[in-house]
């Protein structure tokens, strides 16, 4: 597919990167305030391509926050694992993070590591904006998958079945591993458990997406344990099919901006086999409470909504 120009702003160009997900945007300076037309154009590209990328955007923390705030209310860096000192909206994605590491080998599956951000919250972030600062010369790529096309590609009988199901999401170590002391303390101090529909209706487009974050979804409500396990493994394998995905090679100054309501992503693990450092920073934007095809909203089992305004609106 050739490069496309978004109609709302002639100078802002969108170059799709794969059949179903991912586009690179050029012709805009993210260190400066955007015009309303640019904001509208970027948001339109985000809705169409699920994740959009920018190159050579050397933002500092303040500029990162300012860019993000043009698209919604920011959350705290991370509701469980905290934030960068002095910058409550910024979360550090470092190769040497301790709080999110696990002890012992986990059971590796094709979907291991794939996740949608903070789905243990009743109102997961609507979007995440990740900024590359220190990038290895090779390795460290991130992948995203399109959960709308994944839903569309299910057989009609299976779509009808999962439309009525709900699942419980929580923070927990992967199967076969245990949390580090830092992880266990963080989770115990900020417990988040929520029940979400397995199929989420997008609040802006009306599209249906498989809301089955492998990193957080633990079981399907109402199914026997073995039934739940088999169904989830089938869905997790399905949503990570290569043709639904895009792979992004980071550079210093790269930014990825993704719709958390229609994507899951995979952080790299090859960086731990390399001697190079890797440092990125993330902001997230307050999200709404997911709604299933039956009109039923998600419910919090433990924990509070993410974002001050969201907490007020839901109480």
TrEMBL record:
<dbReference type="InterPro" id="IPR051323">
    <property type="entry name" value="AtsK-like"/>
</dbReference>
<comment type="similarity">
    <text>Belongs to the TfdA dioxygenase family.</text>
</comment>
<feature type="domain" description="TauD/TfdA-like">
    <location>
        <begin position="14"/>
        <end position="267"/>
    </location>
</feature>
<keyword id="KW-0479">Metal-binding</keyword>
<dbReference type="Pfam" id="PF02668">
    <property type="entry name" value="TauD"/>
</dbReference>
<dbReference type="InterPro" id="IPR003819">
    <property type="entry name" value="TauD/TfdA-like"/>
</dbReference>
<keyword id="KW-0408">Iron</keyword>
<keyword id="KW-0560">Oxidoreductase</keyword>
<keyword id="KW-0223">Dioxygenase</keyword>
<dbReference type="GO" id="GO:0005737">
    <property type="term" value="C:cytoplasm"/>
</dbReference>
<dbReference type="GO" id="GO:0016706">
    <property type="term" value="F:2-oxoglutarate-dependent dioxygenase activity"/>
</dbReference>
<dbReference type="InterPro" id="IPR042098">
    <property type="entry name" value="TauD-like_sf"/>
</dbReference>
<protein>
    <submittedName>
        <fullName>Taurine dioxygenase</fullName>
    </submittedName>
</protein>
<dbReference type="GO" id="GO:0046872">
    <property type="term" value="F:metal ion binding"/>
</dbReference>
């Amino acid at each position: 597919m050739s490069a496309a120009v978004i109609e709302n702003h002639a100078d802002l160009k969108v170059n799709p990167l794969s059949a179903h997900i991912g586009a690179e945007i050029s012709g805009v300076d993210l260190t400066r305030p955007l015009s309303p037309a640019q904001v509208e154009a970027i948001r339109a590209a985000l809705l169409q391509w699920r994740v959009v990328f920018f190159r050579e955007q050397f933002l500092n923390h303040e500029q990162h926050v300012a860019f993000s705030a043009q698209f919604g209310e920011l959350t705290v860096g991370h509701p469980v694992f905290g934030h960068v000192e002095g910058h409550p909206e910024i979360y550090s994605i470092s190769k040497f993070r301790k709080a999110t590491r696990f002890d012992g080998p986990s059971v590796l599956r094709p979907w291991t590591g794939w996740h949608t951000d903070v789905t243990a919250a009743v109102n997961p972030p609507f979007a995440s904006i990740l900024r590359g600062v220190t990038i290895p010369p090779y390795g460290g790529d991130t992948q995203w998958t399109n959960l709308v096309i994944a839903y569309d590609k299910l057989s009609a009988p299976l779509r009808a079945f999962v439309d009525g199901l709900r699942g419980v999401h929580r923070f927990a170590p992967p199967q076969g591993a245990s949390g580090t002391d830092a992880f266990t303390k963080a989770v115990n101090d900020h417990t988040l458990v929520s029940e979400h529909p397995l199929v989420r209706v997008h609040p802006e487009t009306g599209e249906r997406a498989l809301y089955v974050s492998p990193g957080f979804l633990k079981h399907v409500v109402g199914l026997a344990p073995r039934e739940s396990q088999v169904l989830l493994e089938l869905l997790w394998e399905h949503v990570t099919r290569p043709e639904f995905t895009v792979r992004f090679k980071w550079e210093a100054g790269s930014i990825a901006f993704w719709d958390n309501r229609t994507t899951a992503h995979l952080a790299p693990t090859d960086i731990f086999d390399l001697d190079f450092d890797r440092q990125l920073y993330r902001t997230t934007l307050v999200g709404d409470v997911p709604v299933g095809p039956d009109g039923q909203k998600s419910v919090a089992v433990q924990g509070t909504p993410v974002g001050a305004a969201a907490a007020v609106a839901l109480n």
